[in-house]
Amino acid sequence: MHTRLCRHATGEPAQYAASAIAVGLTEIGFSDHSPMQTDGFDDWRMRLSELDEYVELVTRARTDFPAIRIALGLEIDFLPGHEDWIRDLAHRHNWDYLIGSVHYVEPGWDIDNPAKISTWHNRNPAEVWAAYFDRLSQAAGSGLFDIIGHVDLCKKFGFVPETDFMPHVRKFLSTVARAGVAIEINTAGLRKQCHEIYPSRPILEAAFRLNIPITFGSDAHAPDEVGADFPSAVALAKDCGYTHSLRFQQRERHVARL
Predict the structure, then answer these.
(1) CATH number belonging to domain 4-257
(2) Nearest to 200 by CA among 162, 163, 247, 158
(3) What is the number of other CB atoms lying within 10 angstroms of the CB of residue 125?
(4) Do β-strands 97-101 and 147-148 pair in parallel, antiparallel, or remain unpaired?
(5) Contact between residue 149 and residue 100 where contact means Cβ atoms under 8 Å apart
(6) Is the CB of residue 115 less than 8 Å from the CB of residue 73?
(7) Is 249:256 a contact under the CB 8 Å cutoff?
(8) CA spacing 20 to 30 A to 105: which of 44, 73, 75, 148?
(9) Parallel, antiparallel, or unpaired for β 109-110 and 104-106?
(10) Which residues of the chain have pLDDT under 50?
(11) How many CA atoms are closer than 13 Å to the CA of 41, on its beta-carbon side?
(12) Residue-wise pLDDT tens digits, 186-196
């Protein structure tokens, strides 16, 4: 879940917590987009000067809503060469989990940015998907993250390769399995042009065969999106064979039955 600090979401952590209680959740986690070393990197993440404020807002929500467990996390972009910065962020606060995600496959192109959708028209989707899953594999194998987020984000706008992309997916999943990280079932895709949960059923079925653990996320960018479409996400997980998911506390994993 995100907050107003990332500049493309609305609402305070307290509002998200209230919504979570209203829909019957007993645990939530915030994973707003982490800052970069320079604030001008893009316009959809918190500034470095706001990181402490983010932690303070989540901490205050914990105090104000003791009936629900509130985890503190970050969603961090994996960019080759930025590993030391990610390690720096990891030690700045007592995070419950870190989600690694990929938005950039080349400098200046965040592939899920609606303002840059025209770039897709000048690219071969098969090449973009290959680059995306290669970078996602690097993220999974880096040892920096607990969870890999929205695994097939590259499908967001509906630009899908005509060729079989599963070899790239299987390579990524093999890396995930070796690294022992989890992948996220993210319902935000149902609210995007692809109209499909991240990841797709074939990817999740392949993940299950490799015993890769899962977590659940609504990727909420507004309080009314908290827990959105979780019944569909749980049904998909069960259909693929899953009986348990993970929760995290101070970066230690705990198994929970679906």
Answers:
(1) 3.20.20.140
(2) 158
(3) 19
(4) parallel
(5) yes
(6) no
(7) no
(8) 73
(9) antiparallel
(10) none
(11) 20
(12) 999 999 999 99
